[in-house]
Amino acid sequence: MRLVLFGPPGAGKGTQAARLRDALGLRIISTGYLIRSAIRQGSPLGMRVKELVQCGGLVPDETVRDLASEAIVHQRFSNFILDGYPRTMQQAQWLEAFLEAYKAPLMAVLYLDVPDDVIVERLSGRRMDTQTGDSYHISLNPPPGHMPEERLIQRKDDRPEAVLARLETYHRDTRPLVDYFDHKGLLVTIDGTASLDAVFEEICAAMGVEERISV
Ligand code: AMP
Q1: Which residue from 46, 106, 135, 159 lies 20 to 30 Å from 206 (Cα-Cα)?
Q2: What CATH number does residue 148 fall under?
Q3: Residue 212: what pLDDT?
Q4: Mutate which of 53, 62, 126, 155 to test ligand 1's pocket (most atoms within 8 Å of Cβ)?
Q5: Is-cis flag, bond preceding 86, omega within 30?
Q6: pLDDT of 27 higher than 90
Q7: Nearest 5°: CA angle at 184, between 180 and 189?
Q8: Residues with Cβ < 8 Å from 23, sequence gap 6 or more?
Q9: How many structural domains does the chain have?
Q10: More reliable by pLDDT, 15 or 210
Q11: Cβ of 59 below 6 Å from ligand 1
């Protein structure tokens, strides 16, 4: 199974990706997580893109392509969910050609549709587990009670000024891919404002899979 989870920042891509991982044994390939890890480790790539990412901009296509392709190859072209990739037309076209070349086309692009005002509210309460990259929301999706507080951080790009920049970037560079994937017959639009459980149920129903976890 090869899926893309698509949508604006804060649409719930990471949360639903984690549920799909747990339910179906898929590997999450999150370019955002890979980039944040590189920044945390202070690698040359991380140092190069740190400021850009923290201000809410996009990392250059070539840089993020290398991260995505390495992870896809590592997964032997199967059983993965791309979370946060592709985000530009160039990335989408490259991904399609790359997967086609290995006869491993995408099965679906799950588009979590959420309006901007809901996004802003969600991102202000979002916290990330630094060990797993899993996301929580302080009231809507609280972390497990046993998790030590110091494991949870607010991402720098979830601060209000960066959120507005990310939304602008999303509408300019990423949102046009909705039509692109729709024309390819791959787009599955899901109402991302519903509860986490309802969104997950809709995803499972759309893909014809039974939910295998209780949430
Ligand atoms: P995310 O965790 O998916 O919200 O990604 C966090 C940040 O990483 C984004 O705001 C971008 O700066 C960068 N990033 C992640 N994925 C991509 C991508 N596909 N193309 C460009 N930049 C990306």
Answers
A1: 135
A2: 3.40.50.300
A3: 57
A4: 53
A5: yes
A6: yes
A7: 70
A8: 204, 209, 211, 212, 213
A9: 1
A10: 15
A11: yes
**Residues 29/76, Cβ–Cβ less than 8 Å:** no
DSSP 151: G
Contacts of 4 (CB under 8 A, 6+ apart): 81, 82, 85, 86, 106, 108, 109, 110, 181, 186
Q: Which residues pair with 129 in a beta bridge?
A: 152
What type of residue is 37?
Answer: S
User: Ligand 1 in contact with 31 (CB < 6 A)?
Assistant: yes
Task: Identify the domain containing residue 158 by its residue range.
Answer: 2-212
Tens of pLDDT, residue by residue over 199-214, are: 999 999 998 887 654 4
The string of pLDDT tens digits covering residues 107-154 is: 999 999 999 999 998 999 999 999 988 889 998 889 999 999 899 999
Query: Any idea what the Cα angle at residue 83 is, between residues 172 and 186, rounded to 5°?
Result: 75
The atom number, within ligand 1, closest to the CA of 60 reads 21
